[in-house]
Write a structure and sequence with these properties.
single chain, alpha+beta, Rossmann fold, five-stranded antiparallel sheet, binds adenosine-5'-triphosphate, cell membrane
Length: about 350
């Protein structure tokens, strides 16, 4: 945990409800300075409500929101030293790019020289030098979003809050902007809190991902850790692709966790065990961690089965293998490894114990 003076945002037991509907159910979060944090979750899980409370548009029912150590409850948005880039936070159409970017600096009553310098610096950060005199309608979607970003960062806020800022852009531009946003954030060294329902976006840009479900934090951590060690079926399913296989019996023998899958086959799991053996109801295996074994291979964690379905996706093939009448495992196999394998083939799958993640139901 970072020391207190290195923390930009802290949420302490924050709750928010509308009528008797609790939409944020007691959130604790610490965002250190310079971190890119994504709040990720399905529609309605409370992401925007959480961001709006940090911004000051909504007050929490209970708990504290601290920015750089100071409780912000009761402090209006314009006094919070935050920048905002929201999907619907449109540019002023009657103002040029430079005037849009100057807006926040003017509100802060900066001098003409400071405004000019601030606009120049912000436009340089987002690679829009030369566009100063254009109007928003003369810009592409990506350029408009970069202008909105420049407008938000020009007053040099402590923290930038972004709510689905890329969702109106087409896929190609969205992917390009992900890389650009991350680079800009790193160059500025500014704290970014980014709300999205797009797990790829969150994984690609964030230092840390906070997964929300039903108004609470389901898991938080580095993208790689969340991907490799989801703590629940919800997180495993929401982040990336996964096999979620039913476990009928769990046994801890010789220091190894043995999971009996529905229909008979057993897998050994070598993953941090976060729950008692008898509460484990599922295991998560990522399809890319399932390999084709040699026919004569003999070792632990081999599953024999019959190919049920194959979908060729170019570089790899998704292969569904029935390993019992009640259990199908999906594997992602490089095309070159699949010679001679067709639907109906008998195959053997190999899954490393560290790729088997036990989960409670
Ligand atoms: N002003 C309001 N009055 C009543 N209910 C609200 C209000 N604002 C949000 N809600 C409810 O709170 C819940 C969380 O909404 P929120 O916008 O935070 O979700 P979200 O995770 O950001 O979803 P999305 O990705 O769809 O924007 C939803 O069930 C929503 O209907």
């Amino acid at each position: 945990m970072s020391s207190a003076d290195n923390v930009d945002i802290q949420l302490v037991d924050v709750t928010k409800g509308y009528g008797n509907h609790l939409v944020v159910g007691g959130i604790n979060l610490v965002v250190p300075r310079g971190e890119f944090v994504s709040i990720l979750g399905p529609s309605g899980c409370g992401k925007t409500t959480t961001l709006n409370m940090i911004a000051g548009f909504h007050e929490p029912n209970s708990g504290e929101i601290r920015i750089r150590g100071k409780n912000q409850v009761g402090v209006p948005p314009e006094k919070r030293n935050i920048g905002l880039v929201f999907q619907n936070y449109a540019l002023f159409p009657h103002m040029t790019v430079a005037e849009n970017v100057a807006f926040g600096l003017k509100m802060k009553r900066k001098s003409a020289v400071e405004i000019e310098e601030g606009v120049r610096r912000a436009l340089k950060s987002v690679h829009l030098e030369g566009y100063e005199t254009r109007y928003p309608k003369e810009l592409s979607g990506g350029q408009q979003q970069r202008t909105a970003l420049a407008r938000a960062i020009a007053p040099q806020p402590s923290v930038l809050l972004l709510d689905e800022p890329l969702s109106n852009l087409d896929l190609k531009l969205r992917e390009a902007m992900r890389i650009e946003l991350k680079e800009i954030q790193q160059q500025l060294g500014m704290t970014f809190v980014y709300v999205t329902h797009d797990q790829e976006e969150a994984m690609a840009m964030s230092d840390r991902v906070v997964v929300m479900s039903g108004g609470v934090i389901a898991q938080e951590g580095r993208p790689v850790d969340i991907y490799q060690n989801p703590v629940s079926a919800f997180v495993a399913d929401f982040i990336g692709k996964s096999n979620l296989l039913s476990v009928t019996k769990t046994e801890n023998r010789d220091g190894k966790l043995r999971l009996a899958l529905k229909g008979g086959p057993t897998l050994i799991a070598d993953a941090p065990q976060t729950a008692p053996a008898d509460s484990i109801a599922l295991c998560c295996i990522r399809p890319e961690n399932v390999q084709l074994a040699e026919p004569d291979e003999s070792r632990e964690n081999l599953l024999a089965g019959r190919v049920d379905k194959m979908v060729n996706l170019g570089a790899h093939v998704d292969v569904w293998v029935d390993v019992s009448s009640d259990c199908t495992v999906k594997a992602q196999i490089p095309v070159r490894r699949l010679e001679g394998v067709t639907v109906g083939s008998e195959v053997k799958l190999r899954i490393e114990p560290k790729a088997v993640q036990p989960l409670v139901g």
